[in-house]
Amino acid sequence: MSDINAKCKIRIIEGGPYLVSGNVPISEQIIIPKAGGYEFQEGRELPQSEAYALCRCGKSTNAPFCDGSHYNHNFRGKETASKNRYHERAERMEGPGVDLLDDGRCAFARFCHRRNGDAWELVEHSDAGNNREEAIRAACDCPSGRLTAVDMDGTEYENEYIPSIDIIQDPERRVSAGIFVKGHILIESADGTPYEVRNRVALCRCGESRNKPFCDAAHVAVQYLDSAVTKRGPSVKKK
Ligand code: FES
Question: Is the CB of 59 within 6 Å of ligand 1?
Answer without folding.
Answer: yes
